[in-house]
Design a protein that fits this description.
- The protein is an all-beta fold.
- About 5% of the residues have low confidence.
- It has 1 helix and 24 strands.
- The radius of gyration is 40 Å and the shape is rod-shaped.
- It has 3 domains: 86 residues, Sandwich (Immunoglobulin-like), CATH 2.60.40.1930; 110 residues, Immunoglobulin-like (Sandwich), CATH 2.60.40; 115 residues, Sandwich (Immunoglobulin-like).
- The strands form 6 sheets. The protein has a 5-stranded mixed β-sheet with strand order 2-8-7-4-5, with no helix packed on it. It has a 5-stranded mixed β-sheet with strand order 10-16-15-12-13, with no helix packed on it. It has a 5-stranded mixed β-sheet with strand order 18-24-23-20-21, with no helix packed on it.
Length: 348
């Protein structure tokens, strides 16, 4: 004889599903006249009993609905055949156990650009007490906003009927989400995860910012002063909104250099009027233009300077970004610098 229950632990208010197999050692229906099934609570009170004739081909299925205030502890199921002294028993627990906790996760970047073409993400459910994935169903909803405090301009959703690990998913920004304009947009992603075992539901949201242009001039590396008549080197470091170096782009960084010349003045005069005169005497000289491709997130420039330059203005442009810096001449009495080179034997 065999007694089975659908779970080993129940809580008050659950339904106990059980099955009794009246079989012999050869797993064939046992020939008997009657079968009595009883269920007792923790105090051995008989809360369920039924007596059946053996007309069920050796199998009996039943259920017991526990009350909301059912006694907590070990309950038992007893089966007796033909009122004999042989009784088969099985126990189960009724306790105030808590359901296993889990969280739903949306793994994606917080900022992307239209040049990325697709919004990519991974979704999964994970138990808080381990790294095990949660088996269940999930619904993803995407809402597109021009402004977060305004109604969405587009909405779409995707249903996953069975998930038991990380699930990768992507949407095309233009075709699926309608993002084509050169403006900042926001995509609110909602994930509703339903666990198969307990039917417990957990939800989570994440907002992704979508820019028409994601690159930006992040940092300019330069010397604080330049030496008149010598090349001045400067580098531009480009990163995107996520802080990653811009590796792939067909755009170039352009540089406009404006030279400022200043006549000699008597350095011994230090009055306010003399200082203002020196400031006003800056004269705009020539203007040069440079451009540089981007390699490994950097654009490099070698700017030629001249003896008469006292200051240069560097204006960097990349797509819609413009950044300007001013660099002043390093102090020098002669304003000229020695150039040295190694000559070969045939040049001597």
């Amino acid at each position: 004889m065999l007694i089975q229950t659908d779970k080993s632990t129940y809580k008050a208010g659950d339904k106990v599903e059980f099955r009794v197999l009246v079989i012999d050692v050869h797993t064939k229906p046992y020939d008997c006249q009657s079968v009595r099934v009883s269920i007792n609570d923790v105090n051995q009170n008989n809360v369920y009993q039924i007596e059946l004739s053996n007309s069920l081909n050796g199998v009996y299925q039943g259920s017991l609905q526990l009350s909301d205030d059912a006694l907590l502890g070990v309950w038992g199921i007893s089966v007796n055949i033909d009122n004999s002294e042989v009784v088969t028993k099985k126990s189960f627990d009724v306790s105030s156990y808590s359901l296993p906790r889990f969280e739903a996760v949306i793994d994606t970047k917080s900022a992307i650009s239209l040049s990325d073409e697709n919004l990519k993400l991974d979704i999964f459910g994970k138990y808080t007490f381990s790294n095990a994935f949660v088996k269940g169903k999930a619904t993803l909803t995407f809402k597109v906003y021009n402004k977060l405090n305004k109604p969405p301009v587009k909405e779409t959703s995707k249903l996953f009927n069975s998930i038991n690990k990380k699930e990768s998913f992507q949407l095309n920004l233009q075709k699926d989400l309608g993002l084509e304009d050169a403006q900042i947009s926001f995509v609110r992603i909602s994930l509703v995860y339903v666990e198969d075992l307990t039917r417990k539901t957990v939800s989570v949201e994440k907002v992704v910012r979508v820019d028409a242009i994601n690159e930006k001039i992040f940092k300019i590396k330069k010397e604080n002063k330049f030496r008149s008549g010598l090349p001045y080197h400067v580098r531009v470091i480009l990163r995107n909104e996520n802080g990653e170096l811009v590796q792939k782009t067909n755009e170039k960084v352009t540089l406009t250099v404006t030279y400022y010349n200043k006549p000699e003045t008597n350095s011994s005069v230090c009055t306010k009027d003399a200082q203002q005169a020196r400031k006003d005497n800056y004269a705009i000289g020539a203007t040069n233009h440079y451009s540089s491709s981007i390699e490994n997130g950097e654009a490099e420039f070698k700017v030629q300077t001249f003896k008469e330059n006292n200051a240069i203005s560097l204006s960097f442009t990349y797509k819609n970004f413009v950044q300007t810096i001013n660099v002043f001449r390093a102090p020098s009495r002669s304003r000229e610098y020695i150039k040295a080179s190694i000559r070969g034997e045939d040049e001597k």
